[in-house]
Amino acid sequence: MSTMQTAAPPTDASPRWRDYYELCKPRVVALMLITALAGMFVATPGMVPLHTLFFGLLGIGLAAGSAAAINHLIDQRIDALMGRTQNRPIPTGRLTTKKALVFSFILGVLAMIILCLFVNVLTAVLTFLALMGYALFYTAYLKRATPQNIVIGGTTGAIPPLLGWTAVTGSLDPHAWLLVLIIFTWTPPHFWALAIHRRDEYARAGIPMLPVTHGIPFTKLCITLYSILLLAVSLLPVAAGMSGLVYFTAALILGLVFIGYALVLQFGHKANMAMKTFQYSILYLLLLFIALLLDHYLTFSVVKL
Predict the structure, then answer these.
(1) CATH of the domain at 152
(2) Residues 161 and 177 in one domain
């Protein structure tokens, strides 16, 4: 049975706050803020100043919400064709294009003001570049141009730990880029699993996701190869002397489980395995960065003792 429905026409009723909230993709933004938070705390041996912690996360969060709203605006046509997105505020008419555009503009401007005035200019500039990269370069161009859209555009979604790091230090550090590299490597297997689950919808919307252009078996192979690469990349902080045994153990276990999911997806016949792999990938990233924080402060506490 087709999930395609006709989008409701715009109404004159005032949009609810929940419609604006949904426009910001809160669950995606929350995960980004967790990785930014990790970047903040790992950047310093002590406590992050509360002023930087609050305004840094606020500015980064507002910018991410602005980028998400622009994504809704640009993708409104294809959102109406896909089951998982057809009930979003713009396709259903709960929010007009004009209101969504004004909302995204206000969020973006507020984010830049907060980061410039209360954090530092470097973080503001990097955040602005990430916002433009995701909202315009990825959403408006890459997503429709190549099946490597997620690989090439993954940098914009991987940048939050670097933003958190620069918010605290005001400078770029190679260790921060290791955290970016982890998320950059995580993004393709994470999103390709979802793309397999939603392959028919992407095909109907004309989006050249890897399962659409190269088939599901090839995509499953790529997920397996990337999950192996992710395990290796996730151990780089240990090799660089940035993390210790706690993080190493967690990264090893989480990575092996990820590979296990990928192998079952590729060679097994379990129902809904693509969606299960996608869901595990979210848990993987969350637990990995929690382990990074635990390792950092346990190591710091031992050193102080």
Answers:
(1) 1.10.357.140
(2) no
pLDDT at 302: 46
In a domain, 117, yes or no: yes
Average pLDDT for 88-101: 89
**Residues 154-163: what's their mean pLDDT?**
92
Lowest average pLDDT, out of 25-39, 112-126, 133-147, goes to: 133-147
- Position of tokens 């902080």? 237
Cβ-based neighbour number of residue 221 at 10 Å: 14
Give 18-68 as a DSSP string. Answer: HHHHHHT-HHHHHHHHHHHHHHHHHT-SSPPPHHHHHHHHHHHHHHHHHHH
Domain with 191, as residue range(s), is: 173-305
Verify that 186 and 257 share a domain, yes or no. Answer: yes
> Taking 80 as the threshold, does the pLDDT of residue 15 lie above it?
no
Q: Give the pLDDT mean for 111-140.
A: 93
Is the domain of 47 the same as that of 184? no
Decide if 12 is inside a domain: no
How many separate domains does the chain show? 2
- Cβ density class 114-139: b for 16+ within 10 Å, e for less: bbbebbbebbbebbbebbebbbbbbb
Tokens standing for residue 155: 């940098």
Can you give the pLDDT at residue 7?
42
